[in-house]
Amino acid sequence: ISAQSDSDVLLEQIRAKEAEIKKLETDLGKYKSAFFKTQEQSKTLKNQIALIEAQINKLGIDLKITQAKISKTETNVRLYSGKIKEKELKIKERQTAISKSVRFLAYSDNQGFLSILFQSRKLSDFFRQSDYLINLEGGLYANLQSLAQDKKELEDLLSGQKEFKNELDALRKELQAKNKLVQNQKKEKNELLKET
User: Could you give the count of Cα atoms lying within 13 Å of 165 in the half-sphere of its Cβ?
Assistant: First the structure.
């Protein structure tokens, strides 16, 4: 239940970040239009400063969007990490069960058919033991199929997590570049202010 509620919390965080990104993108549209209006009027020094401020505001919203995307992607990475741990634990448990079944079947095979028959007190005990072994073999086959499916799902989870990590790296680089742009715009604004 704890793993499920952790996943639910992470999914809720992802949804919240998606909503935040949408809101910020709407704000970005407003700043873009203000930027373009000011750009048309940038004939005077005052208007140039206003243009730079509009660019700074637009970049500020861009930064917030990128930061929200980073946060969302980090949450996705944590979600995938949890799912990967769960799947790895499930695989280990299944491997242990398979190993025990194989050992028991090998032990039964080593005893031999007649030995098992003579060890049984009643003929019905022998048939129950035989049915148990047949069911164990069927269960072993089902466990092997499930193990193969679990391993495939684990590979998919690892691949998905890798994609999110790559996206996270790209977003962090984008954030650095945008931070530099903001600093350059602020520097340009200060230089214009010094000229006046």
Answer: 9
